[in-house]
Each structure stands twice: as structure tokens, then as C-alpha cells.
Amino acid sequence: MSAELVIKDLHVNVEGKPIIKGLNLTIKQGEIHALMGPNGSGKSTLANTLMGHPNYHADAGEVTFGGVNILELEPNERAKLGLFLAFQYPTTVPGVSMANFLRMAVSAVRSHNSNGGGTSEMIPMREFRRELREKMKRLGVDESFARRYLNEGFSGGEKKRAEILQLAMLEPKIAILDETDSGLDIDAVRIVGESVNRLIGPDLGVLVITHYPRLLSYIRPQFVHILLDGRIVESGGWELAELLEAKGYDPIREKYGI
Ligand code: ADP
Ligand code: MG
Fold first, then answer.
1. Which residues line ligand 1 (CB under 6 A)?
2. Which end of the chain has fewer CB atoms within 10 angstroms, the N or the C?
3. Cα separations (Å) of 111 from 90, 118, 161, 176?
4. Could you list which residues have their CB under 5 Å from ion ligand 2?
5. Residue 226 bridge partners (DSSP)
6. Is the CB of residue 194 less than 8 Å from the CB of residue 223?
7. How far is the CA of 180 from the centre of ligand 2 (A)?
8. Residue 220 to residues 59, 238, 248: CA-CA distances in angstroms?
């Protein structure tokens, strides 16, 4: 059964100020969507709300995933349902290798019967290693990367590689990638774009959130949405991203008087 992420009339206030003001969006497995918008339009607020960041709460509207209301769920419960949000994972874990970290993450997300205290059965080492090797090969990541310590001395590009490797290992149904400032790092943009391309298939839906059209030239989303002042003002295809690349956000702002 194919899972859908359905956002209906979502409103989010941050510190008493309305930031997301009635947002509607449906993403199905197998679909690639891009959400674009100028700085401050509410892109990260949306991503934070979807991941269950404690400081971001929906004030109205609903978000369901596979028919389940996820707004009341903890981030790890959302992950178990098959939602991937890159930044829900720790940014630095001293002394933990990529491979160990990934094994813990995969075990936590796949275990269906966590045994009470939050610990979960670890996926067998052999099976894990085979899978990791296969995924690294698919993504063109060198095997030595698995032995690196998580985020220790990682370049912008390597952090992105780690994030995408996590995505590949967790095999989510829908992945939400908030490309905050990575657009400034061309290497990172290319890595995300090329890797997402290698993972795209009928089982994966992706929402790429970005300010920068350049990332999209690698991914070529089927659906492009423009967020302006907390609302999706336009939805279309690739041509919308091209328009932004050529003209920037000013014509859109003028059109909507924002
Ligand atoms: P984008 O990701 O599109 O640049 P954000 O969602 O980060 O936009 O921000 C949208 C608006 O919400 C901005 O005006 C920002 O100042 C405000 N905002 C977001 N998060 C917070 C926060 N934690 N505290 C105060 N204001 C916030
Ligand atoms: Mg942002």
C-alpha cells in the first residue's frame, strides 16, 4: 500500500507570530516535490513542525501519514512509520563510527517491538554490513567512509553524504530534506542532487526544501511549489524552478504584494 503525507490547512505560530498560514500539500511515495521560497517564508518552520521539533506546534490543521495523524507523535515514532527527516539525528556523536551509528539508527527504526525501556534489538552484524556495502556502492561512497567518526571533521559535502547514506539505509517512504545553507556549498549541493537521483524510485517520495534552484537541476522534481509568507502561492512543474532561476523571487512577491 502506498503511503501519502497529507498536510491540510496547517497553521503554525512561532513565539505567538503566525508563520505557516494555511498550508496544503500532498506527497505520495514515488513523487519528487520541491518546496521553494525566499528566506523567512517559513520553509524550515514547516520542516521542523513535520519532524516534531519540540518548539514547533501546529495551531490548526492536520498532518497525516498513511492515514495516521502524526502531529501528536514523537519524532522517533514518525520515523518508524517511514518518514525521514535528516536533521532529527544528532549532529556530533564523539567516538561513534558512521557504521555503528547507522546500525543503531536502522535497528531503532526497524524494530517493531521495542522492549519497554526504549532499547531495541540490533540488526545482525552480517546482514547490516552486507546492506551497508550495497548502499554505499549504489551511492558511490568509498568504503572507508563507514569507519569515519560521525561528523568528526566532516566537510559540508561529507555531512551531506552521511545524511544521504542514512536515508538510503533507513529506506523511508517519504523523505523531507531541508537544504538550509547547503546551497552555498556547491560540492554539497551536487552530492545531495546526484545521490537523491540514485535513490529515487516507486517506493520513495521526497520533499526537497530549498531556496536555491541549482539543487533542483540535479533532481528535476515533478512538482514545484512556491512558499511565500506561510502559504503555497504557486504549484507547477519544473518550469516554476526555471522561472525562479532566471528571475528570482521578486516577480512572485510583486504578484502577491508581499
Ligand atoms: P525559511 O526557512 O523559509 O528561511 P523560517 O521558517 O526559518 O524560514 O522562518 C520563518 C519566520 O519564522 C522568520 O521570520 C523567522 O524569524 C521566524 N522563526 C522561525 N523559527 C523561529 C524561532 N525559533 N524563534 C523565533 N522566530 C522564528
Ligand atoms: Mg530555512
1. 14-15, 19, 37, 39-45, 55
2. N
3. 20, 10, 25, 22
4. 43-44, 180
5. 36, 234
6. no
7. 5
8. 33, 7, 18
Distance 170 CA to ligand 1 centre (A): 29
CA of 138 to the centre of ligand 1 (A): 36
Quick one: which H or E segment has residue 26?
Answer: strand 17-28
| Residue nearest ligand 1's atom 19 by CA | 45
Q: Where are the beta strands (DSSP E) in 71-171?
A: 83-85
Helix (H, G, I), strand (E, B) or coil at 23: strand
Report the nearest-CA residue for atom 11 of ligand 1.
Answer: 40
What was the pLDDT predicted at 95?
A: 84
What residue has cell string 528571475? Answer: 247
CA-closest residue to ligand 1 atom 18: 14
Helix (H, G, I), strand (E, B) or coil at 192: helix
pTM of the predicted structure, to 2 decimals: 0.91
Encoded amino acid at 61, one letter: G
**Coil vs helix vs strand at 29:** coil
Query: Which ligand gives the minimal distance to the CA of 45?
Result: 1
Task: Give me the average pLDDT of each 10-residue run along the chain (258 residues).
Answer: 92 96 98 95 95 93 97 92 75 82 90 56 94 95 92 84 92 89 68 89 94 82 97 96 93 94
| Angle formed at CA 231 by CA 236 and CA 89, multiple of 5 degrees | 90
Question: Residue with C-alpha cell 522561472?
Answer: 243
Q: What pLDDT score was predicted for residue 20?
A: 98
